[in-house]
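As a warm-up, study this chain.
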Amino acid sequence: MKVKKLLATVVSVVTALLVTVSSASACTMLYVGSDLTSTGDTYMSRSEDYSNYYNKVAYVSEHGKHPAGEEYVGCTFKFTFTHDSYAYTAVSDDNLVGVGNEEGECPNCGGTHQHTPMEEGGTNEMGVSVSAMDSVYSLGAVKSADPFKNSRNSENYMSEGDMNTILLGECATAKEAVELLCSIYDTYGVSEGSGVQISDQKETWYVENYSGTQYIAVKLAAGTVAFNANVGIIGLIDLDDTENVIASSKVIEIAQTAGTFVGDAENNIIDYRASYSSPGLNSRVWNGLNYLCGVDTYTQENTTPDDITISNVKDGEIVPVYSNIQLKEGFGTKDMVDFYKVNTIGKSGNLEWHIFQISAEGDYQTATVEWQGINHGGYSVAIPYYSVLTTDVYEGYKVGGLGNTSFVTELPDGCTGYFATTGRVSGQTVPGYRVYPAGWEQGVYWTNDVLSNYADSSACSAEDKAMIKANIAVMQDKCYAVYEEMKAVINDMDVNTAKAFCTEKSAALAKEAHELALALYKDAAFDVHAFEKGACKYCGEKDVTYNPFVDVSNTSVYKNAILWAYYKQPCQIVAGFDAEHFAPNATCTRAQAVAFMWRAAGCPEPTTECSFVDVSADSVYFKAICWAAEEGIVAGYDATHFAPNDTVTRAQFVTFLWREAGCPDSVASYEDFADADAIAAPYQTAAAWAVENGIVFGFEDGTFRPNVECARWAAVLLMARFDALA
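Now compare it with the structure written out below.
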């Protein structure tokens, strides 16, 4: 999909590595016509895949950036604008001045002249949207018959690096943009094979080329699904359908010269894919088809080009362009977003992905919503932009010039942006870390990149990965809701008010999504939690220092014990009478005391049912009492009565704890208490043991007060001291 010059320098903390960039071969486009969607809107989308760790920046290119008459000199192409260029939204490669890129070097051609690097899909102020481009691959004989253009055979030729800049800056309608692109192909030629989507409120066109000057453009029908995963999709085409097809004049002749032609030349019909394209498919094709059709039947073995090609010929007649894809019912915005989360479509090589949702109704300024995603589709949020009304984007999208990531074998001090991986050093694969450039937290791309790479690494637990995806899904749902809010009110606003409103709303969503990605990475990788009312709002981790009870003073002697019991895992010992009240001075019943102890022990399952007639099997205390009886902690008042609602005394509760400890002997004496005579014989050894182990200390007047009803706070405090013995 891209022919890019590797960035000249890669900063490495420990050692310099030879860095290779994967072939750009995984962009995925999708078109769904309005007759097939639950919203009645047309959807046009694409992901850009090139390489992991490759920064992207987003912005609004201002009206008149290229004045009328200016000769724009791009990476490979010169173009003179016929009017002041239109404003448009864009996501581009990062050629901003910074570390390792001090001259603002273009990552596409290596030049430092002032031109725009590769720009991805965007919408201009006239409502024209362009998504360029999806690489397609050609038969060798075709490339020999009509070679791609390059610096050896041409001085001026189109490449993807300049396509969006020129088409969005120059053209007021989709048809105008298609005709301009085709005329450039005719006059100058092109450097690579591609599939390009171009739309406005009225129509969507798809342009595909496999050689230097030959192409076919087709207008996509409202009842069509078109899906390209770098394999080419224009199939059998009757070129006489001049209303819906634009083709180069020699498209049949070149295929005949190459000896690859399939079709009916006499009737001006060509099977374009069969005549020009490399025949292979890939996993994104069958995975995508299974998702789109709501089935799991497509496999490597049974998927064929006929499953994805589009055609305007059926039963020998010209018909609106169609495909054989049977889209699942109710397909809408969420389905489009989730398409870019499908395995092998959503991946670490995603640089950005965009979805244009286009309404045929209403004013063109509100017809197009661009859902913009940055980085891995599985771990990023698509932000809605009313593109024509957007005057600026969130600052985090504009962060560039920081340099590249580096592979190191030892982490530098203070490093927070990294994940464990392997790399090549001196020809050997060694363990180490991928480290992000200083300031990475400021950029949306870098933040999403470190999150997605960490989430996909072995260091991230399955629970954390699920937590990350769940929170991203919540944020995406918020984006859907805010979009509906904008949609409901903007048509009643004047243009300037609508621009300010939509720009602010979208930027706020982007900022929130950026902050979320950063928080999720810190939570999963470093256990840095965002606590809110005692729990992390992302992963649910408890803040064991948070006191939720208004009736438990932060200075009380029992506060820490109550918080210990409140946050105890795996079983919460106490939950309070309600969310804000613990009722510390309320008395503790025998059933409550046993339940506290059972929960502190981890809520073990009793092996037998107890026989107390005053404890029903559906009681919340039933298992606890059965466990306590089974363990010899309680015996009941008699063989059949436990008296669960009787208040437990201090002596009884200490004895329960002593029995749970195994009834140990004690060298201490209970007789030092002023009221030692009040401690009944069954409780005396337990009292001595409790004194010896610091579970009880007595009151200031030297008494034990064995028969005093045990308050809830006292029961929890004794249990906390007992727990500390372990």
